[in-house]
Amino acid sequence: MKLSKFKYKLPSELIALHPAYNRDESRLLVLHKDTGKIEHKIFKDLIDYFDNEDVMVFNNTKVFPARLYGNKEKTGAEIEVFLLRELNREQRLWDVLVDPARKIRIGNKLYFGDDDLLVAEVIDNTTSRGRTLRFLFDGSYEDFKKTLYGLGETPLPKFIERPVEPEDAERYQTIFAKHEGAVAAPTAGMHFSRELMKRLEIKGIDFAEVTLHVGLGNFRSVDVEDLTKHKMDSEQIEINELAVEQVNSGKKKKKQICAVGTTVVRTLETSVSTLGTLKPFEGWTNKFIFPPFEFSVPTSMVTNFHLPLSTLLMMACAFGGYDRVMAAYQEAIKEKYRFGTYGDAMLII
What we know:
alpha/beta
């Protein structure tokens, strides 16, 4: 499977800059993967496709305000710092990306906030853009975290070309977000409202939760034509005993196992037994799913409309069938669906 097969022409005006007014009222394209049939619905109509004891699996990761703007010592040059992950709590060490990278060297100090509220020192130079920072802060860990996140901004992807607005703090997050650690939202989950969750619950749908802390690998471009040579960034995942029990019980009863988002698909397919059942797991995954791929766990999937050449589009094509998904994308463009993080949704069933 070649990278060039995932190229398509996306009119820039179809990239959503804002979310739908109500979470569950974005549009929903339903693709029946066995027949290729396409239906046009509203997201809350999702309930009509599921029955008692079907299982929906959600990613309960929580996005933190990962984007900081600071200034370099002496020159005062503006530097954007993107927090990736905390390396050491006691020493206040963080893995970060910096932009522009060429101006930042080991030993440089960076200042953040009014009156230099927070100072960081560059202590490692891992890749062309990656750095390790030590934040110099005397107070408690709680005060440090509060200060750091107070200076941070909601990390909207760069293709949403507008300033961050106050509503983004709530809307670039699912309503079931619990475990902090993601630098990008699991976007398919953002369409679920409390009202829809309640209606699904009343209908007897079982909710399972897994955790995958979404990293920037989601947006990293694929630089090789031969997809077997692409390496995904590792992301931290957890599948607990309860989720395993819920999913395997649903499988045993031949019920739908609906993965809400590409991150959930990747998590579920990372930890499968030889019998095709889900196993508990805590660790890291760099699983890259592209066509052809034999899925063991999910039977249906909710996902957004992804940008050309993205690994997310590749996974959707693996799940729904390359020809059918690409045809559905052409239909979505024709019908002016909204694409990207804040865009409309697709149910592949």
